[in-house]
Amino acid sequence: MERRVAAALAARLGGAWRVRALGASGFTATWRSDGAGGPLFVKTLPAAEADTLDAEADGLQALAATATVRVPAVAGCWIDDGLALLALEWLELRGSPDGARLGAALGALHAAPAEGGGRFGWRRDNRLGSTAQRNAWSSAGGLDGWIEFFGQRRLMAMHQALAAAGAPAALGHAVEAVVAALPRFFDDGHLPRASLIHGDLWSGNHGALADGTPVVYDPAVSVSDAEAELAMLELFGSPPPGFWPAYRATAGLAPGYERRRPLYQLHHLLNHALLFGGGYVAQSLRLAERLSRTA
Q: I need a labelling partner for 111 at 20 to 30 A (CA). Which of 66, 73, 246, 250 fits?
């Protein structure tokens, strides 16, 4: 396979390439590819799954276009002899980013103008891990549009995928109850702002350059309520120290965020239940039942 990747790079980008497998992703094959112009980080999939890599490239380019947060530059995304490739700038990452710089960058991203005319969604579907993420635009903006989008494209889409995979019926019933209760999570007057979000921002998808510049990667972008991003950032731990004051100073934070945080985390727990099963199914059920009772 190394020779095949090297040949594809040579045909597309020119020159000779040395390719080494990395195993850096559970969803695609990954490679370090060294050429005359320096190294690239390359992902590959069978050509039939090329849209997965094309959607990732699209998401990275959309984030880069905001000039708010650093992402790996896209060197190319193409198909060669049955192989789909995504070639990215190689970045030397040095651990966790400075919290204040990450908070300011993410706040600037969420405050930046987003396409869609105030509606929620994205110009194409993409993937959350290996799960298909449906991004058809909401029919309206504002709270009604967000409840439509998050309820149907996120929670109900996960419910349907889990049901098809054989998840317990009780989980589906609990998710349906949460969707029915969604308006009550916004009875404090919070109006979701249509923001471009990374979409899968946990500690494994951000890092820092040697000078401390925060870098984010492996996106699952959409135009969504920025609080959904923040909830994912807190799902498996806390953001780096200094994050919250910098984020609040840049983008603000509604007082009701802590109440809505588990609602948004449910979406990602359901995805983990779909991808990994096990305890995530029970955890999702407990959370969905609690949310439906306390909304």
A: 73
Q: How far apart are CA 15 and CA 61, in angstroms?
A: 25
How crowded is residue 7: how many other Cβ atoms within 10 Å of its Cβ?
15
- The torsion of the CA quartet 86, 92, 95, 97, rounded to 10 degrees, works out to -80
CB atoms within 10 A of CB 191: 11
For the annotated catalytic residues, the residue numbers are: 200
The tens digit of pLDDT for each residue in 212-237 reads 999 999 999 999 999 999 999 999 99
pLDDT score recorded for residue 61: 98
Residue of 22, 26, 266, 23 whose CA lies nearest to 130: 26
8: its two tokens? 């594809």
Give the separation between CA 209 and CA 216, rounded to whole angstroms. Answer: 11
- pTM to 2 decimal places: 0.95
Q: Which residue has the tokens 């198909």?
A: 79
Please tell me the distance from the alpha carbon of residue 281 to that of residue 149, in angstroms, as a whole number: 23
**Residues of the chain with pLDDT > 70: what percent?**
99
